């Protein structure tokens, strides 16, 4: 059975919020874009955002920066006790887990996990659009429904 991180059958105050992160680079581009999707403890999408990374990096470094920036943004904007961060780049997940340090201090618990690319498609679209055309997430259509 395929897992679906957006579906939670039971939620409690201890149910973690979820952050999906991705980075991408167009073939002709010199920079990467990154994207984030934040879901509350019920699994409902609460925020979609992205940024253009202005420094040249390799793919793993860009993916790791997407994870770190997503965590920093959430820590500064919201009171979240429990967080699971998802990325489809396994080397970046390993590196981010080894470097969690201060970023993790803002949460009672935090885990960074690898997921298949097929389960991270929305964050991928955001990252791709940020680097390809410089669109802000508010300018894009995602097909989300209430």
Low-pLDDT regions: 1-11, 134-146
Oligomer state equals single chain
Strand order of the largest sheet: 3-2-1-4-5
* Secondary structure tally: strands: 5
> What is the CATH class name?
Alpha Beta
User: What would you report as the Rg, rounded to the nearest angstrom?
Assistant: 14 Å
Number of separate structural domains: 1
* Spatial shape: globular
Give the topology string: H per helix, E per strand.
EEEHEHHEH
Average pLDDT = 78
Assess the beta-strand content as a share of residues.
25-35%
Task: Indicate the CATH architecture.
Answer: 2-Layer Sandwich
What is the overall number of helices?
4
Tell me the distance between the termini: 25 Å
What is the assigned CATH homologous superfamily? Ribonuclease H-like superfamily/Ribonuclease H
The secondary-structure class comes to alpha/beta
Biggest beta sheet attributes: 5 strands, mixed
CATH topology: Nucleotidyltransferase, domain 5
Task: Tell me what the structure shows.
The protein is an alpha/beta fold and 146 residues long. It has one domain: Ribonuclease H-like superfamily/Ribonuclease H (Nucleotidyltransferase, domain 5), CATH 3.30.420.10. The chain is 30% helix and 25% strand. It contains four helices and five strands. It has a five-stranded mixed sheet with strand order 3-2-1-4-5, with helices on both faces. The longest helix has 19 residues.
